[in-house]
Amino acid sequence: DGMAGRRRVPTHGLPPGCPLATMVLAIITFGWRVELANAVQGVRSRTYVDDMTAYRRRNGADSLVGPLEAMQRVTDAFESAFYLRHNLKKSVRFSGDAQVRCALQGTQGDNVAKAFVDLGVDQPVVAQASLVKRTTRTDAMRDNACRIALLPIGMRFRAIALAASATPTGLYGAAAAPI
Q: What's the pTM?
């Protein structure tokens, strides 16, 4: 509506839109990745701004419950040290193995799921992603871009809206190899 709101000054943390936010978060989350690697053999992790993903494949007949519990402890300690709090609705411990999921249900930590969302896209825990799922993801991203294209604003502002939407990260997630 063209009206400016009342100016607010953050009392803590990084201000929204701060260009240094991604760099600061990359530095902070690097410590989390190092601690995970030290605590759990074979763990893989990645971060993208404030999204943190860690996983470990089963090695032969070993149990995943112990490593997943260790990963939860490292993440909880990381949160406590930096006064952070993860999104309880979006955070999960996941496994493609029903027995592992059942064992995890009885332990303390995040919800247990068969799959997870990474960068806004469902990530299957399979050797090869289904073509149907990839097509569905790609269609959703295309539809989002089409809606932005219809906005009654200049091209420059539509480009900004598209860049700020989930479309770029969704396309990245759709292109990423499954876990």
A: 0.59
